[in-house]
Sequence to fold (319 residues):
Amino acid sequence: MTLIEADGVESMPLEVDGLSMGPGQRYSVIVTAHDSDEFNYMYNVTSYSDALVSQGLTPMVYTGLINYRDGAPVKTIQSPADEQLVWPEETAIQVLDKQAELPVDRRIELTMKKFTYTNQEHLTTLGTTLYKPVLVPTLYTALSMGDLAANSSVYGPQTNAYVLKHLDVVEVVINNPERVDHTFHFHGHNVQVIETGPYGNSSTISREPVAHQQSGPWPMWRDTVQVRGFEFIRVRFRADNPGVWFMHCHLSWHEYNGVAVVFIEAPDVLQKQQSVPEEMVEMCKRQGIPTQGNGAGNQGFDLSGLPPAIYPISVESAN
Fold:
């Protein structure tokens, strides 16, 4: 089959046998049919999931009929072993419009870590802080704090906020020293997939070492990327969309637990260009949600009244 699109972005045609997909990733492929209706065929979809091993739910196999002609005999074809198939790395996909790598203005490095936290939960996060909602929605803080909106402290430590300058090219590196694959989704942007490679020590478990993969001359743009176990990924985007944008693990329980950061993009430009509709402000007021001030609804850096942040008290093995 021919891969032609990823996450809504057209790619240069790439012949593949299979696709490795994380939660939320999308692909379009073209499959060329036979020029004869002598036989019908069965299709096979075998889905593997590291996250479901302990529940005995992997692999999951789906089959169905490819019907060329009613009543035609079904021809059985032996499925080849997975290692005999062509599985494209994300870096192997090239964007159709041939846009070259962006030059970098700022680099943000995030590392998956597992901690025991002050609430005694054992959780994985990006860095040391678990994302948790604050009292004032972060967009309202970015719009109402004037020049202080450029200071990440006003949003509260629970937001994992990174303030970005307008039109800067931001490189984000995500390191995953765990055996579990993670899939990260970027709101507000597609990102260029630049590079993947080994990170951490996979020799402690039975798993093949990760190979280093560099993108070709026209890196693919997409909004959701896989970071496999013991791997890093390097992506880039231009901060040309002023707003408040979530970046989070697409495993729903990881997102719920706080494996996420927030990009506060060009708050100075945001304040000049956008405002919140009165209907939204009224909706928040009816629910008792404040719509101005820092993360706690106060002025300046006074964050009194915020629920206490959850901090790590000990680091755990990533394996």
